[in-house]
Design brief:
Blueprint: H1 2-19, H2 22-34, H3 40-51, H4 56-81, H5 91-117, H6 119-125, H7 131-138, H8 141-168, H9 175-203
Length: 204
Amino acid sequence: MAQSKNEFYLRRIHSLLGIIPIGAFLIVHLLVNHQATQGAEAFNKASGFMESIPFLLVVEFLFIYIPLLYHGLFGLHIAFTAKENVGHYSLFRNWMFFCQRISGILAFIFIGMHLWQTRLQKAFFGKAVDYNMMHETLHNPLWAIFYIICVIAVVFHFSNGLWSFLVTWGILQSKKSQRVFTWVSLIVFLIISYIGVTAIIAFM
């Protein structure tokens, strides 16, 4: 019983962190990247503003890296241990749950690689995280395709996770509200995916 209770709270924390602060950071990060559609100067200005946040390293660890690490590791635990629930949820929802697990694994790998290509390059080698850094990576078509696939996977994970969050926390209780928010989450997915993919194309 104690283990089940611990699992319950761990899942709640995992669900909450996926929206706040990780989901919020995802949107801000993609909006900053989207400035690349206005040119290198616009992106560098937006990126420079984010770099000027006071106590940036502390903020990053408290609100980005630690939540990401917990959400990612516990998410992997869920991905490899959870099973579909056809009796309780529809076939569509079970497919969404399957895609949520796959996109979570891909997101975990991608975020690690992206951190290495950006923040860790700055920390270890003093490279500037600017337009040129991203252009050097994304002018390679293979990297560009990989980034597009992964960004779409990350956005899907967030959008579908938003539905799961609202169900988990008892906000979407009726079947009707859950069906309606399925369409809302689809709209969120399309809008944020557009922002992310057009940023990648701009860096190319």
